[in-house]
Design a protein that fits this description.
The protein has helices spanning about 50-60, 80-85, 105-115, 130-135, 140-155, 175-180, 210-220, 280-285, 290-305, 310-315, 325-330, and strands spanning about 15-20, 65-70, 95-100, 120-125, 155-165, 185-190, 225, 235, 245-250, 260-265, 270, 280. It is an alpha/beta fold.
């Protein structure tokens, strides 16, 4: 008898697991966490690599065929490479992608190649060293920028994720688009989201509409590209340019109707929506000795209560969400 699939009450099949391996990061980006005062999970609170693998195998048996490794910063966790190598051999898993802040070294890039991972997203919010420092609170621009080109030269499909915010990096939008002229990479501009670990959040002044209009004013005749039905970004290319850019309405949430994602945090919290509360904690169930059948039923139950969109998920909290993105799992 075949395993059931992860299909919510609105008919959306969840085939994409965002798997956080740590809540720690070596950067302190303002939109993700405060500069000080973060209470990171103790080592024993994190899912072990064996537990992460066991749960990944369970999700794959339920129809997940793509896993994105997130954090925090995945590469700050010791032992990540052997885990990725083992994960890459998991039956039913067609693709592993990684989201990183770009603080990769040459040895890590080579190992990713050997494992067979070819897609990586780099969070980069400015092409200016001073603005980069103000955003990340770290003086690491040159190292990150160099790693991007090493990835490209090594044959990786690279996406750059840029969170756009007034008085932070608006002047970087057009230089990012121009970066796609000679390089076959994809830039993704994101609306700012309320996951900064703080007490306040103002709706973004730069929505997907403002971002698009700003670019269109400087590049008339943009080519709209075909995207997968579950894509969160609307993608474009400037005529004659090697790469592309996209805009993700991450706060406006216009893509919820085709969302195929489910999220597992580093401490075992399962979320069916980034904006929603955790549905259950699989770490606790696993360590309490629950069987695979019991874990499966818990996951299916969570998916059956999945909200229609991010607004409904946010409302189910009863209050605004301001947890750090590093805790939520990117």
């Amino acid at each position: 008898m075949s395993q059931p699939l992860l299909i919510d009450k609105y008919g959306r099949q969840l085939t994409y697991l965002r798997l956080s391996v740590t809540d720690r990061c070596n950067f302190r980006c303002y939109y993700c966490m405060p500069e000080e005062g973060m209470n990171f999970a103790a080592r024993q609170e994190l899912l072990s690599f064996e537990e992460l693998y066991q749960l990944s195998a369970l999700f794959c048996s339920l129809g997940v065929n793509k896993i994105r490794i997130t954090g925090g910063e995945p590469f700050v966790r010791a032992g990540i490479m052997p885990f990725l190598r083992k994960l890459s051999q998991l039956p039913g898993l067609e693709e592993i992608t990684v989201t990183s802040n770009g603080s990769l070294n040459a040895k890590q890039i080579k190992t990713l190649q050997e494992i067979g991972i070819r897609k990586i997203n780099i969070s980069l919010d400015s092409l200016d060293r001073d603005r980069f420092f103000k955003i990340t609170r770290r003086d690491s621009f040159e190292a990150v920028y160099a790693s991007i080109f090493q990835l490209l030269e090594s044959g990786f499909e690279v996406k750059l994720n840029c969170v756009v915010a007034e008085n932070k990096n608006v002047q970087d939008i057009l230089p990012f688009v121009e970066l796609t002229k000679h390089y076959s990479l994809a830039v993704r501009f994101l609306e700012e989201m309320p996951f900064n670990g703080g007490d306040t959040f103002q709706p973004p002044q730069w929505s997907h509409r403002e971002i698009y209009q700003h670019i269109a004013n400087h590049y008339p005749g943009l080519q709209k590209l075909e995207s997968e039905p579950s894509s969160t970004s609307v993608n474009y290319r400037v005529s004659g340019y090697a790469g592309s850019f996209g805009i993700i309405p991450s706060f406006s949430r216009t893509f919820c109707g085709t969302c195929n994602r489910i999220r597992l945090g580093a401490t075992g919290e399962l979320r069916t929506c980034l904006y929603g509360p955790p549905a259950t904690n699989l770490r606790d169930l696993l360590r309490a000795g629950h069987s695979q059948e019991q874990l499966t039923n818990e996951i299916l139950e969570a998916v059956s209560h999945r909200e229609q969109d991010g607004f409904a998920a946010e409302a189910s909290h009863g209050q605004a969400v301001h947890a750090s993105m590093s805790v939520l799992g990117g």
